Amino acid sequence: MFEKKTILVTGGTGSIGSEIVRQLLLQNPKSIRIFSRDESKQFLLQQELYEYENIRYLIGDVRDKQRLLYATEGVDYIFHAAALKHVPACEYNPFEAVKTNVIGVQNVIEAALANDVKKVISISTDKVVNPMNTMGATKLLSEKLMSAADYYKGAHKTVFACVRFGNVMGSRGSVIPLFKEQIRSGKPITLTDKRMTRFMMSIPQAASLVLKAAEYARGGELFILKMPSLNILDLAEVLIEDYETTYGIKFKPGIREIGIRPGEKLYEELMTLDESARALCNDEMFLIPSSINDKVKRYEYDGFVKAKYEEYSSLNAPKLNKKEILELLQREGLSFS
């Protein structure tokens, strides 16, 4: 699908964006444009991918529409991974979140339409479902903007779709690297609430879902990977036990409960009951057609069947036990052993 194509990845030096780039490189694209605002991360990625001559590194911010218009010229596909994603940062700087997660998305949409891009796939988060924080609210707006763009695009052929993620294991600023660093430095693991549950997906899984969404997308859809959930307390205890077994050292600081941070939820939801009413699924993902675009009723998705009428939340979903959590960490290279 991507062979000999020109692709723009916004936020292309981030955990997800850079993995999208790595997986795209396996498909022999004509050119990949990595668009991000951090020159240091661009330098590090250039060192890693030095042997590839079909990568272009563009300094820019999705808040800058003119820069996006230039960056998007001649592009076939856009993968939009740029975002402000940390809940506390967005909570304390709400309009900064609006500038990137809402206005930035609209800039991507308008640049794509202006340059007749074939498909735009935007990355969203489980925090958009019944949002109670700024990050979730702004990302929900970004989903609505993408869906609406596919409705009002007129004669343009550009296809817009979204992918909704759970927590991405090992990504920058996520809980597993934090817990591991606290253990290594001999500090207590800081757990916000022992009842907290989360969906978990690996970085390669997340990137693979994005590429598959581009293949399936017809217009305005939302794609959700089926993924396991776990109790964060179990995750912390597994990491402690793994550290003690691997190094033969007793971890004495233990776990300290510090209380839920501003905007944080005890459990996350990936799909509402109303969304499930129109959802389709296959073995690995859910596909939710657009609710405002009547054209999608004509689309057929090979291999997808009607999904069950039920909400999809980390509170009610089956949980991984400790043995399964350890196996998952080892498989993804995130354990101490």
TrEMBL record:
Cross-referenced SUPFAM superfamilies: NAD(P)-binding Rossmann-fold domains
Record Pfam families: Polysacc_synt_2
Taxonomic lineage of the native organism: Bacteria, Bacillati, Bacillota, Bacilli, Bacillales
InterPro entries: NAD(P)-bd_dom_sf, Polysac_CapD-like, Polysaccharide_Synthase-Rel
PANTHER family: UDP-N-ACETYLGLUCOSAMINE 4,6-DEHYDRATASE (PTHR43318), UDP-N-ACETYLGLUCOSAMINE 4,6-DEHYDRATASE (INVERTING) (PTHR43318:SF2)
Domain Polysaccharide biosynthesis protein CapD-like: 7-287
Family recorded in the similarity comment: Belongs to the polysaccharide synthase family.
Domain of life where this protein originates: Bacteria
Protein name as catalogued: Polysaccharide biosynthesis protein CapD-like domain-containing protein
